[in-house]
Design brief:
By secondary structure, this protein is an alpha+beta fold. The protein is built from eleven helices and eight strands. The strands form two sheets. A five-stranded antiparallel beta sheet has the order 1-2-3-5-4, sandwiched between helices. A hairpin with a 7-residue loop joins β7 and β8. α1 runs antiparallel to α2 and α10 runs antiparallel to α11. It is globular and about 55 Å long.
Length: 279
Amino acid sequence: MRSVSPTLVLAIFLTTASATKAEVRGQRACGIQLVMAELLRRPATTQLEGLRLGRRGQYAEALAIDRTMEARLRDQPVRSITRLAGISDVGRTQPRIVTLADGTRALFKPFHETVHRPGVGRAVYEIERALRLFRSPTIIERTIPELGPGTLQIFIEGARHDRPRGRQVAGVDPELQLFDYLIGNTDRVRNGKNQLRHDELEVSVAVDSDSALEVQHPALGGPGLSELAELVHDNPSLVARILDLRLEQLAAIGARNGLDPRSMQRVLERRQRILRLAE
């Protein structure tokens, strides 16, 4: 990715060097807007930059990019629709690459009553952002006349399927394993799929959490008690953020996305198990 202009960064620094705290806050907001304006002239790299900023703890900037990506996915007209290379039309979902008017490419997946349920993908994304993980591309729900209703998610250019390494289970690192346990997603651990690797990101990118947020706890595929205890031990930062989640917050996410309230109650119950192991 081409870096933000050094002249722009220097200008932002010089204008804040001798300012008061209130002025700095205002100038910092202007600085974010200027950086955003420059980034948004390169739509293919903006999502990667947002994920990087989020992983570095620069949440305001990362969330600003999220909002811009959401608006782009929601409002931009469709320029073209093509098949995803290597994916046939056989199966219950038939993903497509949708190119928007500004050149942004996104993956469209039509809803299916069992394998790609309405509300799930967006709710998982909102929980992931609430936990400040920044490992998922921006996703919205949208109806495209030629394809029907489904999800539209930013396509990560240059990404490839991740492969097992180190202490990963089926190629899934401990942080992602614990997140998947929280949301009740078992597909990733069972088959090691649904995650991508990109050279510009330190961690894999999580996609397709379609088995998550069921009303019942998963019967198979999740970690055993000793495995869960190890995941809790290995992820103190994520555990602290999970413990900050509250029922009202989860209920609001579920309601916004039309989910059965019991699915969020299951998330809270798994959160309680994590809390007991962390004590």
